[in-house]
Amino acid sequence: MKILVPIKRVPDPATTIRVLPDGTGIATDNVKWVINPFCEIAIEEALRIKEKQTGEVVLVTVGQSTWQEQLRTGLAMGADRAILVKTDTALDSFAIAKILAKIAGDEKPELIILGKQAIDDDASQVGQMLAEMLGWPQATFASKIEIAADKVSVVREVDGGLETIAFKMPAVITADLRLNEPRYASLPGIMKARKKELKEIAADSLGVDLAPKLKIKTLAAPPKRQGGRKVASVQELVSVLHTEAKVI
Predict the structure, then answer these.
(1) Which of 158, 131, 157, 156 is nearest to 146 (CA)?
(2) How far apart are alpha carbons 80 and 72 in whole angstroms?
(3) Residue 220: φ, ψ to 5°
(4) By the number of CB atoms within 10 A of the CB, which of 174, 206, 227, 234 ranks highest?
(5) Cα 189 from chain centroid?
(6) Cβ proximity of 130 and 97 under 8 Å
(7) Is pLDDT above 90 for 90?
(8) What is the DSSP-derived secondary structure letter of residue 26?
């Protein structure tokens, strides 16, 4: 079984994010970059499936040459090879999905597993768009995956609790937080990752329209939280929530 795992490079969750003065983006000086945590979960699940079913795990990301670092980390975890689609232009979710659909058409995986969302923009769009473009069944927010022959059973989290759905491969699945606990890259894995294939492809060579459908006009840091205060009674609390906070 071949499993394609798209990943994204994001700022470390522990990094303090600063917005540029002109609001065009975030300051990247001294920012540590990591694999998106949900993408790590997707890699781990793909590796577990491979260990049970045998096959190949292929990583793919879309970005600059520096994104090789995150691909190498995924290879050190146990993925077999990686693809870097190089571009210096920031792409929106629709363009990313179109690139991944093209890569999927070339690689012909039985399964695509990716994080349900990236922690930088929290869009949660690429998986759904990709499934629609490929015409494949999809299961989002997966907390459990089981495979038997050519069928996949997925337990997914919904507003009312848990939902179990089943479908035939090929398919697209997006990983939720409770799907698994990602492994750490071992020293032997890090050494092996240096020799594994990492293929680079220019995004412009794929023949995909990358014109943005979404434009970010400005970014701004959230306002600082105000200090709390004590109230003397429940009646005063209700009054403050109604007249000042305007939440009731």
Answers:
(1) 156
(2) 10
(3) -145, 145
(4) 174
(5) 23
(6) yes
(7) no
(8) B
